[in-house]
Amino acid sequence: MNRSGNTGQRTLLAAMLLSLPGPLVLGAGLLLGRSSTQLADFIRRTAELGAIIVSWAVYRATIGRGMEDKARKARLEHIARLCVGASMCLGGAAMALIALLSGSGDKGNVIPALVIAVLGIVTNGFFWLRYRGLNLREENAVIGAQSKLYRAKTLTDICVTAALAIIAAAPGSQAALYMDIIGSLSVALYLMISGSRLLTRRSIA
Question: Which of 33, 195, 201, 10 is nearest to 116 (CA)?
C-alpha cells in the first residue's frame, strides 16, 4: 500500500469513529426535543454513518489489499458510491417529509442537537478539505465520493445550526416555526440533488 493509501484509510477510519457518537447523542436528545429538524438530522446522520462504514470497508478491500482485479474493484467502488448517494437522498427525503408533516407545538429542548450541529461544522469541514486534498493528490472513486458527502454534511450542519439556534433562542415563536420548516426543506433539497448526482454519475472526480 502506498503512502496515499495509508493516509486515505486512516482518514476514513477517523471519520467513521468520529461519526459514531452523533446518532447516539441525537437519539438521546430526541427524548427531550421534538424539532422536525432535530429528528431529520438524526435520520440523516444514521444513514450517513452506514455509508461511511461501507466506504471504509470498500477502500480497505481495494487499496489496503492491493486488489488487482480491476472489474471487482470497480464494482465495489460503485457500491460505495451508491451507498453514499442513497444515504444523502434518504436523509433529504426524511427531512422533507418530517418538515411538511410537523406541527407547530412545543419543540422541547434542542440544545443537544445544536451542540452536535456546531461540532459537525468544524469536524465535517475538516474532513471535507482533507478528502478533497487526498483526491486531488491521487484520484480515487471512494475518496471522491467522501469529499462530496462531507461537503454536503458541512453545508447541512450550517443550515441545521441556524435553524436550531433560532428555535433555542425563541422557542414557540413564529420565527422558530418557520425556520424549523425552512431549514429542513432547504437541507432536504440540497441533499437530494447532491445524492441524485452521485447515483447517476458514471465516474467520480
Answer: 33
Q: Which three cell numbers stand for residue 112?
A: 443537544
Residue 100 near residue 24, CB atoms below 8 Å: no
pLDDT at 125 over 90: yes
Output DSSP code: residue 34.
-
Q: What CATH number is given for 3-200 in this structure?
A: 1.20.1510
129, 148 Cβ separation under 8 angstroms: no
User: Cell digits for 9?
Assistant: 484509510
- Mean pLDDT for 86-96 is 84
pTM check: above 0.85: no
Q: How far is CA 88 from CA 75, 84, 105, 115, 157, in A?
A: 20, 6, 28, 22, 13
Strand partners, 33: 108
Contact 61, 77 (CB under 8 A): no
Give the residue-averaged pLDDT of 131-142.
Answer: 89
The structural domains of the chain, with segments of one domain joined by +, span: 3-200
Alpha helices in 20-140 (DSSP H): 21-29, 36-59, 70-101, 111-137
Strand partners, 187: none
CA atoms within 13 A on the CB side of 130: 20
